[in-house]
Design goal:
homodimer; globular; alpha/beta; Rossmann fold; seven-stranded parallel beta sheet; 40% helix
Amino acid sequence: MTRLVEVRTRVLKQNDTVARRLRSRFEDAGVSVASLVSSPGAGKTALLERTLTELIGDFRVAALVGDLATDNDAKRLARSGAPIRQITTGTVCHLEAAMIEEAIADWLLEELDFLFIENVGNLVCPATFDLGEARRVVLCAATEGEDKPLKYPTIFNTADAAVITKIDLAQAVEFDAAAMHRNIQAVRPGMTVLEVSTKTGQHFSDWLQWLTSQAAEH
Amino acid sequence: MTRLVEVRTRVLKQNDTVARRLRSRFEDAGVSVASLVSSPGAGKTALLERTLTELIGDFRVAALVGDLATDNDAKRLARSGAPIRQITTGTVCHLEAAMIEEAIADWLLEELDFLFIENVGNLVCPATFDLGEARRVVLCAATEGEDKPLKYPTIFNTADAAVITKIDLAQAVEFDAAAMHRNIQAVRPGMTVLEVSTKTGQHFSDWLQWLTSQAAEH
């Protein structure tokens, strides 16, 4: 057990070194980098597709998308017209900084305003891997229930904002928004929380506004 | 990297040894053991609570439930009247056989007909950890989308049956059941697939019947 912990610590240290290098490159290039983490099926790709489509008229946007298998998400996102790269992880349950570095090796970061990184659908393991992103956004669908922040505190703790997705279904699943907000604040006091429906567009402009205000702060 | 793979292989070997020991104990005791795996929020606890409540009149049932944090699920499940133990994993993203062995240390397995094990909500990492269960059931909510089997093939491959949950919401999310079945069969040909709504009870009897028929085969 001790040896496993040692090896794990070493892997995380190596990841942090690469993540620091990436963060410097992103800052130097003036690109605003946000990563998206969530359970499988919380709506990361749908949110990202709409985000790219809405931003692409005014900004230079691109995205990396991680999955164990298939390049379905990259194909979906490419419909927006933005440059997209799929990262296929095989059996690895999270993205690592080295995968990002490799994926963007021939991209000119200076030519981008926004770079989005969609992680593998997993509410646990991505928490401990810094990808050099300026902001990490955790998505949680109204259909998943209000207890998720309490049961997966680490990922909420490492994120800068939470987006509650699929709020068009809130009534159908008797979603208790007040309880969800209370649970998020219990885990991460002061966290920015947005509620959106990618499908109907409800409050989607709040999300876009948050993204652009964050980029401006940069 | 080589060293990490070595350590990982050793951990999996140790887990398999404990899992084999557990499987023998379960078989000797005549207890039918089923584990539930899924994304966070797919409805494992809700399905299990109803299952325990419906079976407890005719069978001796118990459950173990894994979460990173909180004992909320154990409290929920205890309302059924069945013996329940919470396994809190901290930052570990899956249950391991040794955790099961420790949790049941003072239980008399001979006095049980069914033992359920609810894994941590994670569609990736639990796949590679045998818990000694006779059957593994993967849950996927209609709200998660039809592409999940293709994107998380390993967990579907290691499961004996798939349960599509929240089918009461199928219409609201324009769930394409035919595509879901096609994707499951593409990953694991011949797999038993059930569609249920724990909330409305739709097809819930099919699930109970599957469980009892599997136990009888045993």
